[in-house]
Design a protein that fits this description.
The protein has nine helices and no strands. It is an all-alpha fold and 192 residues long. α1 packs parallel to α3, α2 (21-41) runs antiparallel to α3 (45-54) and α6 (103-123) crosses α9. The longest helix has 25 residues, at 167-191.
Length: 192
């Protein structure tokens, strides 16, 4: 799979349409998590990471057109059809009718919402980090529907099912990915 855009160009494109630190951090987090999953599952990570970086390209400016405006923005930047399909597939059933087909798209669909939940749980910890978070703590937060209510447990559960993984496997792997990449994301945020 080819992105037809470099990581550096993808980051510049992201910054063209996103200025809020929250959105930039989310994009960098999902990119790092996708890179981690690609390596863990034996795939070439570049495409996975760039898709993670650009998956919410249209959300900050056009939240009502999320995954609808993205193809226009990505196409104008010279992104491949594969990348556009992957970006749009993460909103399947919510804001897009593009179904996740490839392993990478299924991981993105599953991990996007989950990174938000893990990030919210990390901010509640004394360390403000997920590096010392236990899976049991994450599972409690997942079960508490009032905690980070904007992170859809239904989408996360559907994501695990699409991957043919147990929910606990998805939670564990995504927590591992975020813990392993937390410093990298922090450093990149400082450089923006």
């Amino acid at each position: 799979m080819q992105a037809s855009i470099s990581r550096q160009a993808a980051l510049a494109l992201l910054r063209q349409y996103n200025q809020e630190p929250f959105h930039l951090q989310h994009a960098l987090t999902v990119a790092a998590v996708m890179d981690w999953f690609a390596r863990d599952l034996g795939y070439e990570p570049e495409f996975w990471e760039i898709v993670g970086l650009l998956h919410d390209i249209d959300f900050e400016r056009w939240p009502e057109e999320h995954c609808v405006k993205a193809p226009e923005l990505l196409s104008a930047a010279g992104c491949s059809e594969e990348l556009i399909h992957a970006v749009c597939s993460h909103g399947y059933g919510i804001c897009s009718q593009v179904e996740p087909e490839h392993q990478m798209e299924k991981v993105l669909f599953a991990a996007d919402e989950l990174t938000g939940l893990i990030g919210a749980a990390a901010r509640m910890r004394p360390s403000k980090s997920c590096t010392d978070m236990e899976l049991s703590s994450l599972k409690k937060k997942f079960k508490d529907k009032k905690f980070a209510a904007g992170c859809s447990r239904e989408v996360i559960t559907q994501g695990a099912e699409r991957l043919s993984w147990e929910l606990e496997t998805l939670l564990s792997k995504t927590l591992q990915a975020m813990a392993a990449t937390e410093d990298r994301v922090r450093q990149e945020m400082e450089q923006l």
